[in-house]
Amino acid sequence: MAPEVKYTKIFINNKWVDSKSGKTFPTYSPHDGSVIAQIAEGDKADVDLAVSAAKAAFHRNSEWRLLDASQRGRILSKFADLVERDAKYLAELEGYDNGMVCAFSHKVLTNVPNQIRYIASLADKVEGSTIPLDGDTFSYTLKQPVGVCALILPWNVPILMFVNKVATALAAGCTAVVKPAEQTPLTALALTALLKEAGLPAGVLNVVPGFGETAGVALTHHVDVAKVSFTGSLEVGKLIQKAAGTNNLKRVTLELGGKSPLVIMNDANLEAAVQYAAMGVFSNQGQMCIAASRLFVQSGIYDQFVQAAAAVAKSLKIGNPADPSTQHGPQVDEEMMNKVLGLIEKGKAEGATLVTGGKRVGNCGYYIEPTVFANVKDEMTIAKEEIFGPVQNILKFETLEEVLDRANDTNYGLAAGIFTSNVNTALQFSKHVESGNVWVNTYLAIGPQAPFGGFKDSGIGRELGSDSLQEYLEVKTVTMALPKKI
């Protein structure tokens, strides 16, 4: 049975409201393409109201600004308790709207409450410093919230991205306007209801569902927005960075995807490497910014690895994401499915060897077989472009020096990994690979304590870890003259 859809309206100043235009848009099931619900469609008029509410809530005399930092942390801790209470419902809603398989969404929801609790614990850990300035002065720094934040979510892991951005902004003392991805608005709205239940004051968090070209543009250009945090495509990220400087100088954090290299050395534990490599590219149907979509395998084990990788891909059970036994679900929508299928065809046309998969499954919903390509070359499109689908590209290499150069030959730099039994190899790779996240003999190992972000075109700034809070703070230097003598 499908989960109940409880929230479909815009959330402004702690109230659920219709869009000013009265318009709605549909959100679809990736499983069968059916309409799940009609969602209030926000545009500039709604964004203006939401930003106004957030600005008022950020006033120095507002209820929110007068709260102790520890009290902000307690509200977030209460939010974590409520997410834990409703974890089953939220996991089912995520899968219903996003296509995330049941096992994956429940795993996500198992980790989310502790992620919130970690961020909550940072709220009263914001500290300045004293400075030994020359002369008869007393100088110190204050770290203060930046202001109203525009938080723009992706569709691939909506709950995780909501928590990363919203909880961190609130822990820092900011107020926020959230724009969920138009493909997956439901869990952002459900989480917002839980923050209201947790006691968040009016206006601190506002949520405006809508489309990028209307609600998103209005939000990123708004003069009263002090910061934008966006996770999504490089193309849109560049537009947002330009928009952030149009009417004022907004602070920006961006996480814009990757083309992540995973290197398998001859001395690797082959069984573990095959399993982690499959998980790294087939989890969530490959719809992950950190997908291990460039798999470099050393020549001594290449043929053996390809054979084992194909066997794993063929073994994955494809089906309804709500079925607990399903291991591989649909792409998020028809547009993404067609994009992935088009790149698969390009891989075949450019000479890569299709080992398994490569086809759409059925004609209802947006399913693609887990796909493995061998004999992939660096110059091929599938080795260069972010596919964001279940396509494992296996490239051959000879030496560590060679593979480091090839791994770094991309404009992206979000994640990388290596499997080896040689600690020196692991250390050399970790030092020299151009990536914000590096895994050794594992992959996708992420926790709230470890900062997450990318080099090069993969982004600006960090989420998670204590570093993430700094992205929402300004540093103010205060210097006072002291009397020369007591």
UniProtKB/TrEMBL annotation:
Instruction: List the keywords (alphabetical).
Output: Oxidoreductase
Q: Which residues form the Aldehyde dehydrogenase domain?
A: 16-478
Pfam annotation, one family: Aldedh
Q: Know the name of this protein?
A: Aldehyde dehydrogenase domain-containing protein
Q: Which residues form the active site?
A: 255
Q: Which GO terms describe its molecular function?
A: oxidoreductase activity, acting on the aldehyde or oxo group of donors, NAD or NADP as acceptor
Give the UniProt family note: Belongs to the aldehyde dehydrogenase family.
The keyword Oxidoreductase appears for this protein? yes
Organism source for this protein? Pieris brassicae
Q: Write down the superkingdom of origin.
A: Eukaryota
**Classification via PROSITE patterns:** ALDEHYDE_DEHYDR_CYS, ALDEHYDE_DEHYDR_GLU
